[in-house]
Amino acid sequence: MATVIIPTPLRKFTGNTAKLQVSGATIEESFKTLSTDFPDLKKHLFDEQGNIRSFVNIFVGDDDIRDLQNEKTTLSNDAVISIVPAIAGGLS
Amino acid sequence: MIIIEPEAKRIMLEDALLAYPDECCGFLLGVENGSERIISTSLVVNNAKEGDKKRRFEIAAKDYVKAERFADENNLSLLGVYHSHPDHPAVPSEHDRVAAQPFFSYVIVSVINKNISAIRSWQLNEQNRFEEEKLKGYQFV
């Protein structure tokens, strides 16, 4: 099973757990499992169309999934998935 | 309530003044004690926004990962983000709100004419709206 590293702001939706083991052959499958196990996490990961939110970056190892196969990126058993919130803002 | 210890405050304000008229940004780390957040460390981060840094900030993913690692290694919690609003009030914009994460304290430093004008802190509520968080001692400097 892959390991998912949960960023600090989302840990309140995973019972304060920072690292989770999750099954799934792809990012899409593992994130569906994650959303089922932690339903409050779902709205912070996916938009209303079910796509990964634009302010959420997902890395497998050191690689952004946008540089791999996005949600279809396949996962090895020892894959480490990091959810990295995009931090941005500024004047209107 | 959020308390920013003097050294963490000094680093944050110095960053805001040095970056002026651009926006600065960084992370706030410390400990949570019940409903109190005590910030002991400010980590200055490069504003990675391409283009108009006078009105926007962005933190690169690698800097975010570094901050989480720093917190972990130093037994601290990553509790928030600071940024400056050059020549504007310390009030979050719609752009700030859309990009904001739950849980984090968003400290905004208003810099008017190269002087610190105000420091205020904000947090998203359950309705995804910003609510002001009491900032001990330093609301206006």
List keywords for this structure.
heterodimer; A: 92 residues; alpha+beta; five-stranded mixed beta sheet; B: 141 residues; alpha/beta; seven-stranded mixed beta sheet; 3 helices; 40% strand; globular
Question: Can you give a write-up of this model?
Answer:
In chain A, 20% of the residues lie in helices and 26% in strands. By secondary structure, chain A is an alpha+beta fold. Chain A has a five-stranded mixed sheet with strand order 2-1-5-3-4, with helices on one face. Chain A is globular and about 45 Å long. With 141 residues, chain B is α/β, with parallel strands linked by helices. Chain B is built from three helices and eight strands. Chain B has helices spanning 6-19, 61-73, 94-99, and strands spanning 2-4, 25-33, 36-45, 57-59, 77-86, 105-112, 115-124, 130-133. Chain B has a seven-stranded mixed sheet. In chain B, β7 (115-124) and β8 (130-133) form a beta hairpin. The radius of gyration of chain B is 14 Å and the shape is globular. The mean pLDDT of chain B is 94. The chains are: A alpha+beta (92), B alpha/beta (141). Chain A binds chain B through residues 7-12, 44, 55, 57, 59, 64, 82, 84-92, and chain B through 23, 25, 49, 54-59, 61, 64-65, 68, 71, 77-79, 81, 83, 85, 88, 92-96, 98-104, 106. β6 (87-89) of chain A pairs antiparallel with β4 (57-59) of chain B.
